[in-house]
């Protein structure tokens, strides 16, 4: 206690005599001059000056004690998280030294945190270590330019750019061409004002008005659609002065209506019946969903069936379109499967000459065919058969019969004969039997199944030659088919 009293007494004497106090020195250079007692790294002898240590809560509780009389007070905040900054402590958000400026506590930059005391936007670049907020309160923040330049202030290059040389602001561009230049899309969620001046708000127009140009150097003007410049198809007819193109991009263009012929091109060229959901080509009164009153040219596939979201069937090559009746889409079908349609055409002819002796019967070589009627169907077969028979001697007549057989059973026949007469061959031989062509037809309807049809010849009088090669006739020109037996079968679906 005695030492403390002596120290205080000495300090008092020094203050009274010199108005300056020196600690650990005899010649103080200021009001208070503290000199370290020891130098070097000596354990157990910390040196320095410790300011009062307080928490944010302490300062909030003592707030009323600090007035302009305490301007310049220096403290160290040890905890800035035990209360909420407010009023005079509004800027105390972290541990560190603060001084009182007569109104609020101000932070002394000690170089703590992610930045350094050398970070200064006026002299060098830097990087934010965290989110920052400038609390302006009732103060203003202005940037002034000594030498105006283009893009003097910007955010991320072109996101926001200030051209102080031309007094312009660019959004999406660093070289704005007008006072406000937006290079990109613009979204307006409230009124759009035009006109006015630097101190007067422009007009937002009224509902339904349209914005019309005021020409170069003038603000546009809100006008009623009916009085706006130019033609407006919503209120009046008009005439195009040139070709026009609507570039839709990914957007849609929809016309809504409820009347017949709600939309048309040149009267009947194209007509939309919105009342009945029909379109007409060549008519303003379409009777079906698509009604073409005139010719129709199809240069690609023709689809039938399907629905509103599924493509119909284009069929396969050579199929035909068959009606399915009212209210149903037609169908592509093979001709061979259509009722009344030709299912197949078949032709055979004799292959080799054969002699049929009197009183015998023989198959005509080559004149045979096997056909199948599909399951679930009946078919009608039309036969046309033509044949010749010639006798082997010079008798004046020959007789016989051509027969048509189905699965070995005769279903039709025709009489054949060689007429009498005389024709001399080049060698002087008299040809007395002159064969007449025998032609007969037949039709039958058959159910599903497989059937074999063939032609036979029966010789009644004399021996006969079938599929004769007529090389012994005067004037023969080499035609090998002339006297062959022939059969044609046309098959139709019932």
Task: Spell out the key features of this protein.
Jelly Rolls, 494 residues, 5-stranded antiparallel sheet, mainly beta, 30 strands
Helices and strands in order, then pairings?
Blueprint: H1 2-18, E1 21-23, E2 32-34, E3 53-55, H2 56-61, E4 74-79, E5 96-100, E6 105-107, E7 153-155, E8 160-163, E9 168-171, E10 180-182, E11 210-212, E12 221-223, E13 263-265, E14 270-273, E15 278-281, E16 290-292, E17 320-322, E18 331-333, E19 342-349, E20 354-356, E21 361-373, E22 379-387, E23 389-391, E24 398-406, E25 409-424, E26 430-435, E27 438-446, E28 449-461, E29 464-466, E30 486-493
Parallel strand pairs: 1-2, 3-4, 9-10, 15-16
Antiparallel strand pairs: 4-5, 5-6, 7-8, 8-9, 11-12, 13-14, 14-15, 17-18, 19-30, 20-29, 21-28, 22-27, 22-30, 23-29, 24-25, 24-28, 25-26
Q: What is the overall pLDDT average? A: 85
DSSP E strands, number: 30
Rough outline: elongated
Helix content: under 10%
The strand order across the widest sheet is 21-28-24-25-26
So how many helices?
2
Low-confidence parts, pLDDT < 50 over ≥5 residues? 1-6, 112-118
Q: Tell me the structural class.
A: mainly beta
Gyration radius (Cα, Å) is 58 Å
Largest sheet: 5 strands, antiparallel
Q: What is the CATH class designation of one domain? A: Mainly Beta
- Name the CATH architecture of one domain: Sandwich
Distance between the termini: 138 Å
The oligomeric status of these chains comes to single chain
Question: Can you put this structure into words, describing what you see?
Answer:
Among the domains are: 21-37 and 47-110, no CATH class; 263-292, no CATH class; 343-471 and 478-493, Jelly Rolls (Sandwich). Helices cover 5% and strands 33% of the residues. The chain has helices at 2-18, 56-61; strands spanning 21-23, 32-34, 53-55, 74-79, 96-100, 105-107, 153-155, 160-163, 168-171, 180-182, 210-212, 221-223, 263-265, 270-273, 278-281, 290-292, 320-322, 331-333, 342-349, 354-356, 361-373, 379-387, 389-391, 398-406, 409-424, 430-435, 438-446, 449-461, 464-466, 486-493. A hairpin with a 4-residue loop joins strand 7 (153-155) and strand 8 (160-163). Residues 1-6 and 112-118 have low confidence and may be disordered.
């Amino acid at each position: 206690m005695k030492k403390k009293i002596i120290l205080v007494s000495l300090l008092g004497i020094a203050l009274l005599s010199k108005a300056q106090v020196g600690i650990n020195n005899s010649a103080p250079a200021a009001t208070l001059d503290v000199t370290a007692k020891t130098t070097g790294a000596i354990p157990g002898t910390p040196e320095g000056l410790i300011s009062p240590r307080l928490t944010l809560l302490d300062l909030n509780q003592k707030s009323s004690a600090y007035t302009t009389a305490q301007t310049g007070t220096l403290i160290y905040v040890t905890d800035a998280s035990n209360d909420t900054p407010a009023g005079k402590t509004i800027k105390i958000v972290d541990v560190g030294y603060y001084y009182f400026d007569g109104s609020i506590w101000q932070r002394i930059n000690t170089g703590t945190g992610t930045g350094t005391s050398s970070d200064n936007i006026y002299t060098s670049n830097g990087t934010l270590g965290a989110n920052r907020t400038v609390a302006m309160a009732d103060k203003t923040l202005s940037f002034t330019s000594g030498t105006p330049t283009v893009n003097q202030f910007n955010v991320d290059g072109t996101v926001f750019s200030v051209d102080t040389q031309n007094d312009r602001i660019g959004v999406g561009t660093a070289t704005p061409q007008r006072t406000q230049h937006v290079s990109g899309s613009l979204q307006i969620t409230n009124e759009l004002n035009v006109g006015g001046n630097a101190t007067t708000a422009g007009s937002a127009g009224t509902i339904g008005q349209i914005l019309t140009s005021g020409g170069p150097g003038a603000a546009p003007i809100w006008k009623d659609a009916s009085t706006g410049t130019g033609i407006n198809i919503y209120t009046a007819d008009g005439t195009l002065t040139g070709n026009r193109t609507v570039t839709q991009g990914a957007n849609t263009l929809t016309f809504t209506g409820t009347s017949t012929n709600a939309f048309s091109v040149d009267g009947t060229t194209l007509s939309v019946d919105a009342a009945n959901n029909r379109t007409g080509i060549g008519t303003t009164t379409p009777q079906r969903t698509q009604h073409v009153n005139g010719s129709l040219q199809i240069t690609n596939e023709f689809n039938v069936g399907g629905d509103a979201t599924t493509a119909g069937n284009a069929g396969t090559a050579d199929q035909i379109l068959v009606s399915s009746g009212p209210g149903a889409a037609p169908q592509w079908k093979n001709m061979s499967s259509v009722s009344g349609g030709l299912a197949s055409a078949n032709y055979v002819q004799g292959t080799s000459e054969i002699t049929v002796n009197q009183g015998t019967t023989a198959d005509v070589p080559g004149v045979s065919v096997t056909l199948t009627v599909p399951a679930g169907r009946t078919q009608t077969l039309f036969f046309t058969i033509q044949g010749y028979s010639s006798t082997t001697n010079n008798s004046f007549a020959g007789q016989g019969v051509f027969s048509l057989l189905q699965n070995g059973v005769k279903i039709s026949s025709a009489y054949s004969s060689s007429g009498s007469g005389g024709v001399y061959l080049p060698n002087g031989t008299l040809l007395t039997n002159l064969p007449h062509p025998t032609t007969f037809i037949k039709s039958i309807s058959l159910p599903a199944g497989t059937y074999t049809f063939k032609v036979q010849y029966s010789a009644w009088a004399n021996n006969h030659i079938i599929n004769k090669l007529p090389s012994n006739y005067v004037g023969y020109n080499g035609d090998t088919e002339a006297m062959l037996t022939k059969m044609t079968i046309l098959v139709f679906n019932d």
